Amino acid sequence: MTTTRADLTNCLVCGPRTRQTTVLDGGVRRCASCGFAWTQRTFPAPAELYDDGYYHGGGYEDYFLPGPRRFEAGRRVRWLLPQVRPSGARLSLLEAGSAGGFFVEAARRAGVDASGVEVSEVASRFARERLGVPV
Hints:
5 helices, alpha+beta, two-stranded parallel sheet, 36% helix, single chain, three-stranded antiparallel beta sheet
């Protein structure tokens, strides 16, 4: 997906003809009409930065160890659901930057129609092949 300058300055909900305010030193824009907020700057995240060595190297804990990741993901889901789920409502969730898919997995186990997007082929492949979740 290619991001253009217009994508960063126009409200994606209301369009280009709405008044906007900026916060966080101009890094975030907020539409005065609908309240939608978005980052104004582009931050490079090339896929090659998040290769196999990123998740398994550098003397750090292996990111894909399921125990700690599932524990943390489960805590986030247990916090999130009471905040956003009206009684009996079905929820959909799209996690941007889903890494290995542990949060998507936890959300799906809680009955949420969850999927993710991830720039790293290594991480998204792990999510699909090892956890069986759509990333």
